[in-house]
Amino acid sequence: MKELLAKPGFLAAHGTFGADLSYLLAVVFTVMFLYAWRLAKKARGTQHHKLIFASMISMLVYFIGYYYARQLGVLALEGIEGFGGPQETYDNVFIPILTTHLILVCLGLILAVYMIFQGFRACDKVDGEYRLQSRELKINPKSFKSVMMTLAGLWAVNQLILTFVRHKSFAAGLAWALIFGVIALVIYLERIIEKALPDGARRHRLLGRTTMVIFAMILATSTLTYLMLYVIYPKA
Length: 236
Prior knowledge:
Elements: H1 2-5, H2 17-41, H3 45-70, H4 72-77, H5 87-122, E1 123-126, E2 129-132, H6 141-165, H7 170-196, H8 200-232
Antiparallel strand pairs: 1-2
Helix pairs in contact: 2-3, 2-8, 3-5, 5-7, 5-8, 6-7
């Protein structure tokens, strides 16, 4: 897979197949989510749920496969990702943009998954259509503890695999620790969110808009990262 991703790309002269595919899919996924949001605003709940679910599964499969195989963020943070510009630009412009992009990707993925489950909890099927219902939604304390313990176990197993099986760097372990940490933070924030926004329908609408803004920002930072790596400052 690494060999395929490293082949010449099809969007820019200095791009790789992996980078071009990543950017192209970022555009596709963003458009799909924005269109799903439009369906929700038109009260077409079933179509909205189906498109969001299909988009999420596709994005998760790609995200896990691509980032686990190539570790774009880790390589770039280690300074070996192919940036050919001045060191000052790399430190003060590229790295902040890339870091922001990776944080937004983590938040966007987590919120998108959360919104699917929260949407189903806040909806009832009326005349064959999913419709948001105004009612109080709270997570069961036992379920909360189980989810957090499961997450901690998955992080521990992943760290053991990274360290003793795949022999990855400290930066790789740190990147994955950040991902699991963000997931845990969002799950914990649910306890705060349910107190601030107890109404499930209102919560879904407000967080849905926030999620869409994050995905738009992901596309913007992804575009800037791609341009700096493969168009403006390609590595010779």
